[in-house]
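Teaching assistant here, posting this on the class forum so everyone can see the example we discussed in section. The complex has two components, and the goal was to see what a joint structure prediction looks like when all of them are supplied at once.
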Amino acid sequence: MRPLLISHKTLSNALGTGLDATLEALRARRSGLAPCNFDTVDLDTWVGLVDGLDTMAVREDLACYDCRNNRLAQLALEQDGFAQAVAAAREKYGAARIGVFVGTSTSGLLQSELAYRQRNPETGALPPEFCYEGTQNTYSLAGFVRAYLGLQGPALVVSSACSSTAKVFGNAQRMIDAGVCDAALVGGVDSLCLTTLYGFNSLGLLSDETCRPYDVARKGLSIGEGGGFVLLEKAGAGAGPMLLGVGESSDAYHMSAPHPEGLGARLAMQRALDAAGVQPSAIDYINLHGTATKANDASEDRAVVELFGQAVPCSSTKGWTGHLLGAAGISEAIIGMLAMEHGFIPGSLGTGQLDPALHCDYRIENRAAPLRTVLSNSFGFGGSNCSLVLGAAP
Amino acid sequence: MSRLRAFVEGIGLRGPGLDGWEPSRPVLTGAASYVPEPTNMAVTGMLPPNERRRAGIPIKLAIASGHEAFEHAQRSAADTATVFTSSSGDNENVHAICETLVTAPREVSPTRFHNSVHNAVAGYWGIAAQSHAPSTSLCGYDSSFAVGLLDAMAQLATDGIPVALLAYDHAYREPLASVRHVEGNFGIALVLTPRRTERCFAVLELEFQSGAAHAAPMADPALERLRLGNPAARSLPLLEALAGVDLARAARQPGLESRLALDYQGDCRLDMTVTPC
């Protein structure tokens, strides 16, 4: 594929709002995870919660979109001068030439969960203020972001569970390459809801301590909320890191378990390398999906070792943010960009003793290192896999 | 503005009174009258028994229409990229989970949870078709079909590989039905190729344009109600054009070019031309 410029970026999660908050926490090895006190949840687990979402509201003219997910989107768009950068791009390209390709897993589903608590006892009706289109519907995030930023190009939501906001890079790349738009707003958010927490609990995948990716005694996920956005433009439009390759695949194995031999993961990584036109040896660091479930880490490790051997430093940063589910792809891609920009490999928080059955070059400690090219993995339910190859600013 | 092109190789259709592509063609062109009967929800042998037992309505709609489209195209589903698009996903499942979450203890079923992801259909499809090909799962509310079509055609243009587009939506039950009306169960699948093949019967050319579409209504009021009421059925004007081309070909007559527009998020549109292949 033709490389694309990532001209602007922003990131928000439990570590704080804006790029600097995540960068500082990565350097200081401070986790954003805390014991879960979200809503009425009575599960013994840890979450990465974003402060302030309960008390804010979305912009007044977009009140029909008001829900935790879109509040989080607005909060993220307002960091790092991102909304202003999009406004400048709108002037440059025209509103109809900028696409919105964003991902989310559960959208505003929390709003429906809350509305079901307030059903009319006689008729069963949902409360009159409940707005389905602006909240629960999966498209609501793209509708909100498009209206918030005054864009009028193609817009969609990719919702493929935990690969969603990695895959949106592929949609944007194809649309720009096909000439449908000149620039693209790419990214997305996912916010806490009860379906996710109780759902993962039902599968026995939630840890009762902070997640410990690749640890011999790892017990499962810590869930987080957050997200980020980037502005993609054609190469030459400015300075910044580059999107070099996107690789997508399907496991064709099981709805909620990864392929045990990492077949889909390996295919996604290989396709991303092929799209970027680089050999495995070109990769300086891999930000793993690394959810800290037994099955994910084993399957991903196998795929990584098959493709890269033990030569490439790897880590999962979910010990910092928790698993951001649909927002993991964009968040970890941006962490990869920060690692290149600031010349360090983030290690792994929460990991004590590495699982001896896993063989990739997994890093626990942070380390300074010049990074030119990184790979970021995101794998989701339904066997939906996506890998991104990102390059440092030339 | 760039013009995207696809060759249509196969179609599958399941909707109210529209049971399969062949019998639906004269209904779509107005040569036969439309009788809106409940959608045939029987699925083919494509789905393994375990997955069939767990499959909700969207999975059945997509597998049934997708299977028909691939048979029509005589192409293997195992190595064809897919674009799934739906406004609602499995809304019965969402309803069941929301009901569970208001009762104590909140015991969400693991199957319901993994079926709650918007890409559940893609996951089941991958297993059924044994496909490791790239696949995406999209949502564009009422424009979900147009969103999926544009994405599939951009993929044809850039990756140069065949792509199947599968769109489906189904009616909500209460209390969500009162806040989101969806008419009937509707599934449509198109197998599209970037180059002409022996099986292709129509060429579709498309441009993304600013400005709302002024879509001509379906001649039959019940079909028009279906078009407006089900996001996947927003494809009906395109299906009508494709049916005209396909029927003319079957009758060894020269088919006519049709022009149509599909709405894209209220302020944009897809301008399309359908011609015989």
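For the discussion questions: Chain A has a mean pLDDT of 97. The first strand of chain A starts at residue 4 and ends at 13. Think about how each of these relates to the inputs above.
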